[in-house]
UniProtKB/TrEMBL annotation:
Protein name: Zinc-binding dehydrogenase
Chain segments annotated as coiled-coil in the UniProt record: none
Entries under InterPro entries matching the protein: ADH-like_C, ER, GroES-like_sf, NAD(P)-bd_dom_sf, Zn-ADH-like_protein
Natural source organism: Nocardia speluncae
Alphabetical list of CDD domains matching this protein: MDR4 (cd08270)
Family matches, as Gene3D superfamilies: Medium-chain alcohol dehydrogenases, catalytic domain, NAD(P)-binding Rossmann-like Domain
Enoyl reductase (ER) domain span: 9-306
SMART domains (UniProt xref): PKS_ER
Molecular function, one GO term: oxidoreductase activity
Length: 309
């Protein structure tokens, strides 16, 4: 089969070549891939850390070519959306059936391919805040793929959404269109405390966000785009004077149970237009070099999609 493989001699670190077809385990389905979306983590870290010849890629949509031998998961011919630690950037991928969601007939597979990492990370992050109806929720790094999903989902959940972006002049209108009630540059610009934070930046922004939590609030530390340490000053973790019961939590998406249900629900929401996948670059997988360079240059505010055509 054809696949994008790690190749250190190539300018982008990738080349389109021939590799052996994957051999599914008994609890895995074989998927004929139609589209994949790129995530900053797999580009910034995955391409540099993987061995030559590896087929990378986390997100993919496609059609079940062969159902799992153990009888689990969708049947042959079912359109699906999938997640895995690698293997998405190929014509075929073998996927655990617990990491497969179903896709509505005639849905845009490119749009649905943005769901597994970006959409589901946003959804699971908001779950960790608990009920958000009528509460103030801050989302840092709001212009990225996960951030834009988080803004929409938080608004759907009834939150007063505050979106943080380094360039409000450029992005405020689009973020408000997605559901943000306020747009700020950093957590230090907050006029009043927030009940929850989805932090996709890390570094000083995470520290500042925690300092602006209301009593009982939670920061979900999801992203670390800043590439900087989180250093809390003395007294930041005191629990007095309205700072009682604040917390910071983390999670690993592949460690979560029940992801198939989330994939299926999110795919339905994207398919009906209730959620905007915010695709800002789209092309053939033969143009992967362009997509990778655009993402690394931080010129993408949203999602990049490669179609296997």
């Amino acid at each position: 089969m054809r696949a994008l493989v790690i190749d250190r001699s190539a300018a982008s670190g990738l080349r389109l070549g021939e590799v052996a077809d994957p051999e599914p385990a008994t609890n895995q389905a074989l998927i004929r891939v139609t589209a994949t979306s790129l995530n900053s983590g797999e580009i910034v870290h995955g391409l540099s850390e993987a061995a030559d010849g590896t087929v990378p890629g986390w997100d993919a949509t496609g059609i079940v070519e062969r159902a799992a031998a153990d009888g689990s998961g969708p049947t042959e011919g079912t359109p699906v959306v999938t997640l895995g630690p690698s293997g998405a950037w190929a014509e075929l991928r073998a996927v655990d059936t617990g990491l497969i969601g179903t896709v509505p007939a005639n849905a845009d597979h490119g749009a649905i391919s943005t769901v597994p990492v970006a959409g589901t990370t946003a959804l699971r992050s908001l779950h960790r805040l608990g009920p958000i109806l009528g509460r103030r929720v801050l989302i840092t790094g709001a212009t990225g793929g996960t951030g834009r999903y988080a803004v929409q989902l938080a608004r759907h959940g009834g939150a007063h959404v505050v979106a943080a972006t380094a360039d409000p002049a450029t992005h405020a209108r689009s973020l408000r269109d997605l559901g943000a009630a306020e747009v700020v540059t950093t957590p230090t610009d907050l006029a009043e405390p927030v009940d929850g934070v989805i932090d996709l930046v890390g570094g000083q922004q995470l520290v500042d966000a925690y300092q602006h939590l209301a009593e009982g609030g939670t920061v979900v530390a999801v992203g670390h785009a800043a590439g900087a340490a989180e250093t809390f000053p003395y007294g930041a973790l005191f629990g007095d004077q309205g700072r009682h019961d604040r917390s910071i939590t983390t999670f690993f998406l592949l460690g979560c149970a029940g992801l198939s249900r989330d994939f299926t629900w999110l795919a339905g929401q994207v398919s009906t237009g209730a959620l905007d996948p915010n695709i800002t670059w789209r092309g053939s997988w033969t143009e992967a070099d362009t997509a990778v360079h655009t993402l690394l240059a931080r010129r993408l505010h949203g999602k990049a999609v490669l179609e296997m055509c």
